[in-house]
Amino acid sequence: MIIKEVKFSYIEPKYRMGPYIEFISELDVPSLEYDDIVRVIEDNYPDYKNVKLMSYSKTMMQAIKDRLIFKRSDRIFFTADTHWGHRNIIRYCQRPFADVEEMNEALITNWNSTVGKDDIVFHLGDFAMGGSAEWSRLLERLNGRIYLILGNHDMKTIGKGFSRFEHVAMQMLINIGGQRIYLNHYPFLCFGGAYRNTWQLFGHVHTNDAQTGLDYSRLNNLFPTQYDVGVDNNNYAPVSFEQIEKNIRQQIKDKQL
Fold first, then answer.
1. Residue 191 and residue 132: Cα distance in Å, rounded?
2. Could you report the per-residue pLDDT of 61-78, keeping only the tens digit for each?
3. Is the pLDDT of residue 239 over 90?
């Protein structure tokens, strides 16, 4: 058996699958028993020792694919760093709001004027401050089927109101009409497919014209296929897949000049 690719992954709450090894292989024999597959992987990839290899039913695998693979005809949006309820973020990022109440309402209005009730939204972290009551009240007012990638602030409130989300994860790799996209709260230094038009979307750094972010100088090292979907970089509203595609194409063009 020749192992072509191995990666460690984690599928989050709804399927409760826990850590697992996903592998792409070329088999020398029609099939291998579970223990044989584990042995081959452990012999070749010591870092994966003692990690459970999961086997899935056809129904379960299709359910996972349905969550990660989307069509270009789907209405899909991305956002990050809304920081609902966070007073200090106005000062930190020089947001154009008089107070946190004005910011909260503006972000909700912008969201719902952009996103329809059945649209898909990937929120890439730092959703809101406060407890479960605040999260629940916010989520009840927001349009769309929302997937949450956890940000550093969200770790403090993990589990609060999460049942409203379609899916909650630390990271995702999705496919929209053949376009592979890594989703993480943070920008990557490098990632698989970066030189072959795989995208990486992120938040955290609060890109804005005022250049207030502590990591601003580091952003010069990004690939042109990376994009900050945070509200500070996108007129305080979710940004569509189509607009991101245009922006990334322009970034690639600018990099070639």
1. 34
2. 455 555 588 888 899 999
3. yes
Angle at 109 between CA 89 and CA 156, to 5 degrees: 40
Question: Amino acid identity, residue 232?
Answer: D
What distance, in Å, lies between the first and last C-alpha atoms of the chain? Answer: 46
- Using the predicted structure, report yes or no on whether residue 12 has a pLDDT greater than 70: no
Whether residue 202 contacts residue 186, with contact meaning beta carbons closer than 8 Å, is answered with yes
Domains of the chain are: 2-55 (no CATH), 69-256 (3.60.21.10)
The CA distance from 134 to 100, in Å, is 14
Look at residues 186, 176, 178, 187 and name the one whose alpha carbon lies nearest to residue 240.
176
Q: Tell me, what's the pLDDT at 196?
A: 86
Residue 185 has pLDDT above 60, yes or no: yes
Distance CA 42, CA 27 (A): 16
Listed in sequence order, the DSSP H helices in the chain are 34-44, 58-68, 88-92, 100-114, 132-141, 241-256
